[in-house]
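User: Structure tokens for both sequences below?

Assistant:
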Amino acid sequence: MGVYFCLRWPSQMVRSKRMKASSHVQWLLSSVLLLCLVDQANGQKKGVPRGLKCVTRNLEVWDCSWKGPSGPNGTVYEVCIKSRDHCYTSVKPSIQIPALLPGDHEITIYPQNDFGSSPSKFILNEESISFIPEAPEILDLAAEFPTDTLHVEWNDRGSVFPRHANVTWQIRLLCKKRMETIALVTYNSTLNGQDTVHHWSWTSDMPLQCAAHHVEMRRYIDDPQFLGHKEWSGWSPLKSISWSSPDSQPKVFPADKVILVGSNITVCCVSQEKVLSAQIGNNNCPLIHLEGENVAIKIYNISVSESSGTNVIFNTDSNLAGTVIFAGYPPDIPKNLSCETHDFKEIVCTWSPGRLTGLLGPRNTSYTLHESFSGKNVTFKRTEESTNESYQLMFQMTPNQEIYHFTLNARNPLGQSESTILVNITTRVSPHTPTSFKVKDVNSTTVTLSWHLPGNFAKINLLCQIEIKSHSGQELRNATITGVDNSSYLTAMDKLNPYTNYTFRIRCATETLWKWSNWATEKQHLTLEGFPSKGPDTWREWSSDGKNLIIYWKTLSLSEIPDRQHRAEIQLDRNDYVISVVAKNSVGSSPPSKIASMEIPNDDPNMTCDYVIKWCNSSRPGPCLMDWKKVPSNSTEAVIESAQFRPGVRYRFFLYGCRQQGYQLLRSVIGYTEELAPVVAPNFTVEDTSADSILVKWEDVPVEELRGFLRGYVFYFGKGEQGTSKMRGLESGRADIKVKNITDVSQKTLRIADLQGKTSYHLVLRAYTDGGMGPEKSMYVVTKENSVGLIIAILIPVAVAVIVGVVTSILCYRKREWIKETFYPDIPNPENCKALQFQKSVCEGNNGLKTLEMNPCTPNNVEVLESRSTVPKIEDTEIISPVAEHALVGSEAEPENHVVVSYCPPIIEEEIPNPATADEAGGPAQVIYIDVQSMYQPQAKPGEDAEAEPAGGSGYKPQMHLPVTPALEDEDDDLDKAAGYRPQANVATWTLVSPDSPRSTDSNSEVVSFGSPCSINSRQFLIPPKDEDSPKSSGGGWSFTNFFQNKPND
């Protein structure tokens, strides 16, 4: 190391010189180099020992070694230990010295026969010693192939160590040629100063036959007193083990392996030829290649096998091999372990196996019963397949032993379990079923029972239970019997009835009463007849015709005669007789029972003997007798019980008092043991029906069907039609259903008032007792029609019609003129109108212009339809002269509703030589139109000039402009400014408005002239203007309000 560092320094200094280029660095480098050379020369002196190291193998001897040169003839070393004053000589650079005491020790090594060598001194103590034990040696390695277990054996050689110490062993297992480590296990032991052989076993996951296995081990000794360094020993030599096949056939391992459900398992195939595939069941598995042609498969989380196991198969080129795997569970802890004895000879232990293991045959669970005190063992022998039912095992009792401690051990290839129980067998006795059961008579009321019970019961008492059955009931009696050894037992049963059939059976247990035995086979027995100790209970009744007396008596023993009562009928007169009844059997006769044939009068209330209560079904015909009961004379009440009583049946009870064998009737009552609801509803009918009431009548319910005391009736009624659903929820308090509760049971009629006429009603009647409400009986009834209402319904419409007719007549009379004018106006004949007759000269001048010629007419009133913003007023006017027309046109004093129109007849356009014709034509034709209402009010179009309509209104326009003189033209201009009738001069604009209009047929001209309508009463033009832009008038026709307005002309 010194040389290395000395050689490295110059390199570093050179780099430093290059970096800094200073002179003092060179000087420092030279000094250091010189020192290194001196040190190296001193260190390699010939023959100087160095590097002393010591180890121990057994804590008794230290093996020390060092480094030193050896000459051609060898060097002898002398090792001296200062603390011992002793030196050791060695020809090798190593020496063994006894272990030194704790502390530092000076060791001097002198090389001998070596020229120029010098001694070396070392300081040695225990802390610098290393403890490395010797490698252990495996004494034996054995394989248990069926269980895949390796057994290792070795000696710890504890005798070579001075004291006790703990040892940790590491055992390593290797497999395959590659020496792969498959397990590294730690094993602990203790050194005790003696050689001890240790054994260790290991179970392989892989079958040992699959590949060779190798084992090696080492150890680590932990001596707490040793202060030096402790290390593992070296590995021991390998020990190997392998399996060789006896033939060349492939083999599969493990064979018939039993494993736990859910485990993993490795299955291998040892073969000399190549294995192609492997499968478990029907599933293929991947192959794991081992040594040579050997392969293995890994199965994970295996499930429960079938009863025949799970097959694993390997396929080769020419063969196949396989094995069976059985997967199951270890045995469950035996449950409900119980031990008892039946006869004190054997103990029977039973248990339930718990969960099924899934393993059958030789792998099934085996059970062993071990008793601790006696040390006996009993093995369970299975006779059938495993079930989860209980098993049992017999154990022979030990004489004079009462306490037993049993341990039941369950074992199968996967594990074992156990259950224990401690019992005192004297308290766990369940006897066998009694046998040879017999019954023998002693007398008429006593019998003896005998039976055999196997077992040794000499030290305990038995408790036996006897069941006695007869026609009167069942009874259990217990009998305590002293036990004997395997013998018969006997007991007596007394207080029985004579001449009665009994059925006996018996079972037994011990006084501690662990379990009863099974019942013995029952025995039937008839007891002997007994001497009758008293006379029979008697009663008498006269027949319904009063000629025969019927005698009744009750048997002393009900088992003798099936009937509960006997009777005899004798013919007697009405004298008082005493009847005696005696009971006889094979043993003797009973004392007589006497009763008088006639009843005692009710004159003496003192009773000297007893009372008799008789009862019967009151609704049954014939003699009233069902049964009777005698009550002591000192009693004032009695409870009567009888199997013949039935709920809902009415019974009559009679109380008789007894005096000197005679009876008198004290009182009779009727009653029910339990009241029930009636089974039928009362029948009812409707006796009377009116417009507002119904009378209902019903009948009584028969007593047999009433089944209780009648408490009343409930009557429901409400509106309803026949064929609809019945009333539902009668008791729910519906508002549309009326209910009447009739508590007077004597009432048989009911009148229902306040009904509506001619209406259908649904009636329901029910009877009820304290036992409940009976069924319902229903009926539908329709009330009669109400005559007063019908008369009123007729009179009111008639009166209203008369009043309306009278008022209408009065109004029509007052408005007769208006009605006539509105609905039936007078339309004059246009032919009689002369208003449009023109001058002949004008009409003849133009052949193309033709007008309708009208007959002369003298109008009285003229109405003209005006175009105004407001509704015009219609007034009477008159025709004025043409001279006055000019004055009217220029006058502003006239009202706005007065319009002056200048009428001008059509003029033919031709030259008129005589200008005076115009004057003649325009003079008398001037007409004034006042208050004319029009339905058509044309509006001005946007494209027309204001001058196009010089007149302020619309009306009839002339059909042509006549050539007139200037004077007349001025007058015509003024006339155009006024609204009114215009001559139809413009023939070219005429169109046919109505198909009914007259047409000229005497000319071929296409222009046809129509005359203007002329009417003094009509308010509408027959030929309206052709202005499409004019809106329709909303003021035409008549209004209903006008009907109630009076006009001035009315």
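Moving on to the next sequence.
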Amino acid sequence: MEPDVSVESGCMIRIVVVGIGEIPGAYLRDYVSLVVSHKRVDLSSVSSFYTEHQKSPFAQQPWSTGSLNFKFLVGGAPRSPWDDFQAQRKIHGLIGLSHCPTSPDIAATYEEFIAICKAYPSALVKRMLAFFPSDAHQVEQEEKKRQHLIFVPPADKQTLELHMQTLMQDMAANFLMEFESWVSKAKKRRLCRSQKIIGDYCLLAGSPLDADAHYNTAIELARLTGDLFWHAGSIEGSVCAHVIHHAGHNEPSFDENVKLRYYEVIQLYRRVPAPAFELEAILKLSRFLCRRELAKEVSDLLMSAMEGAKSVVDPSDRLVLYVEVARIFSCLGYERKAAFFSRQVAQLYLQQEGQWSASSALQVLTLGAKTYNVQSKSTLSERNKTDKEAHGTDDESKELLSSDADGMWSTLQMNVLNEMLSAAVRAGDYYAAWSSAARLLRGHYPLITPSDQARLANSLITSSKQLPRGARCSDPCLPFVRLHSVPSLPHQMDIVNRVNGKKDWWTGSAPSGPFIYTPFGRGNDATSEGKQEILWVVGEPVQVLVELANPCAFEVFVDSIYLSLDSGDFEAYPATVTLPSNSTQLVSLSGTPLKESTITLRGCIVHCFNVVTEHIFEDINELLADVAKGFSLSDPFRNTEGPKFRQASNPQISVMPPLPLLTYQIIGGQGASVMYEGEIREVLINISNTSMVPIVEAHMSLTGKQQEHVVSMGHSALQSALPLLPGASIVIPVIIKAGQISTVPETLHRQDYAGNNPPRVVKDTSPLLVIHYAGEAAACAENKQKEGTKVPPGRRLTIPLQMHVLQGLSLVHARLLSMEVPAQINTSDSDLHVESSDSLVKMDPYRGSWGLRLLELELWNPTDVVFEITVCERKNREGFEAFKIADDSVECLYPSTRIDREYSARVLIPLERLKLPILNKGYFNRMNDLAKSERQTRAELNLTIKELSSRVCVKWSSGRSSIGELSIKDAIREALQASAIDVLLPDPLTFGFRVTPKLIEENNVDCDTLTAYNEFENKKDKDVTVTASCKGSIQTHDLIPLEMLVRNNTREAVTLSFSVMCRDVAGENCLGGEKATVLWAGALSGVEAEVPPLGKIVHTFGLCFLVPGDYTLLGAAVIHPKNDLLGSPFKMASSDGPQTMTCSGPPFRLHVSGHFSN
């Protein structure tokens, strides 16, 4: 049997085309293509080369419409044993191709051609074509005149095609003349077989009518002689002549006639029997009827041919049969039947020994791989393009075929891939072997046992060792790779759009709230409805998260994996991954965009099993979609222990031009600052410009709900460093203060006293420091006025100031202490003791005691460190606002107090620092209607308490660098709320006494009352009331002139009535009654006077002491209702009479000595 047979095969002139000498492969392919392109030569073009030596036997030669048909056998062909039965089976021509530059010895080359011609004795026309000859070759040819040698001069392709057309027309004329000569000699024979052969040559000469006449004669003679074999051959020739003559006129009656006559041929061959010719006849008829409307009849013919193949003994004949049946089924569109018979062809090839047989089997299996949906991706892409151009196949049937192949043909697919693997290994095609093993393992791992999986892995490694280093394959193997997500730029690299002409372009762009990322801020833009848009910047590293899966029973080592993009303007960084068996792993792949563009993620380039492959994200998405529809069972991400995740869409990625980029580093460590409650610390932040663009503008701000923890920021340090050039860095100081932890200190204190230590209380806070910065605006000055001019965007750096706050020094409680201590009476000559009227100790003139006003703070140290406590007073409000670690705006009141760990201590704070300097006018206008003004008074008092309580602070220090401040404002306000008026408001009047200075000079009185008086005069601004005592220089029976000073601490004039009292040690009045011991001169009671605002008056009187001892002088005054006062220690009169106010001063102690005392 012969391949590629058809009804028209009888008119084909067979010509062998061979290469002579040494010819490069590229040149040989070009020369062969020039020759084989002339398969049909019209008789009209042959007439100029044709010479009629005698009358032509082809009386009905169609010179205007006829043609000669050539069938080129490249590389040679064996002689057919049936060339005497059918003339078209003979080799009628021989063409030798030679390349003169590589075969310069033209004589030796020609001798080689002559030797080849001897192998084809039936060749009637011989030509040796020598391309690119030299002048020496031309001269040699002219001298020796070689008959079959033709030189083809060097020329371009078009000229060579023209030369070749001329040569083939000349060769066709020679064939025609040779056929005429042969027919003329054999025409006299009237035998059946001779007439049949003459008809064959008439067909080869392009004269179908002459051939039909001879065939009819042969048919009649064969029917008479009963020569069934030649009878069938004559009918075949007659049908061929009819088909050629009626070419282009396809009528149903003609097709029916051809079919009936070929059925007769088949029956004749079956009766001979001649199974090979019978099968050829069936194949010829099937190819002639190969149309969709006759598909059923053609299929029945082919299946009957397959039944007859059982009687074929020659394996080559069976091989040809399977090939032709597969080709015809493929032409009908029966892809599955064609693939089945292709597999039969491959199995016949595999049964033979030799590398070429295995290579042929691999090629056949590769052709049928598409039907089984196991084709290579390289052939798949090419066939997809062809299918899109040709609309012969229905898309719906393709989809059905693909789904059926995936769902039902898994075992068949595995068998096909195993056969391809075996054929590739035998053929030595290690690339195809690696590809087949990869497709088998990747597509059918659920149905492969672990041992077979290991065998395939070994096949991959073995095949890859035979491939060149870095070999690439279009078919991916393991692992499975899918896109997990494309993270947006971190908030340290946020991009903020700038509007041309807007100065504060960053307004409204800072994140709100305590979190760096809030899900409510994403997805509200227009791009959220479609694909997610990702912004990348040229020159800045980016990352993409991909998920790798290894569903097999062996470990997979990935030598390298990196991103694959549709644009080449991207530098990808490889990563190495080791995947255990049956596992998944999330891998971050990074790279750097190099050019401004819009790019799309294709997939990943994976170097695994020593071969580089490309894993496309869309392919794995289609696989998972088929799994969701139930078309496939191979889901590598389903039964693994990896993280569950929904399928991510491929986002749109826009690459922006280079932008400035700030990075930060917290000096001392990137972790959270571990601080105690109230601790104040300076944090140094190193900010660097890591881009190639200078920063010309920057703005620093705070955001979030914990801004109170940041005391100050280094605005000036940042602004002074601008412009910040590429590679430059600055250090910005930021002062932070730890907040308080919401706990119940009393409970903790009690538990500690009980011996049960509570767990350590902590609190994490993170204020956000935001820096907006940008480079130079690229818009020109002339374009700034145009609307919509684009300006390069700015960026936002968000720095979380993380604080890990531990429970520190705790305030258990605070209370106001008011104590009474018995007064001390001088009994010896001691130094004068000077007291201010608002001092810590005050004497009750009626009970002879001292009053103490203290704020007691009980502190508890639950930590494992020691604290040093210092009570300080801030000098002014500005000093408090601009707090620094080295704060010089505070004044220490008392030495520091040490509190050991797990101990408590009490700190006393004097309250004289909280006194108001004077009374404002508003305090004198609420006397008449106290109830109506109570609310307003209370509000003003609260404001005053709030301001004045900020002046007292409790600082602590621990170790060398840990300092802080205890928050006591609320404690002071709460403690003073009930008795704030008594503590804060000053006395409206202050009193002082002194001995007349003239008397001191004359009598040389050794008394410090003058000093006390001078101090009183110098401290008018501080509301100081002076008391004094002498050192025994006042004697009995002397009239001592004294002066009482009354000062008005209000801003209004005061009308008052004052008096002076003197008491002895027992507290009895010494100025009146039966036991009076002191005589006086001047007014001591009921003295009316008016004191100007912030002014004073002096009242003079004299005292004569009759009994030595210690005496106390007291001043008192009654303020008349001209002005209404409010405050304490004022004592209101009865509401029935006129409203008056009584004020009393501090005691003035005197020691009186007798004349007899030393």
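User: Anything stand out in the second?

Assistant: The radius of gyration is 59 Å.
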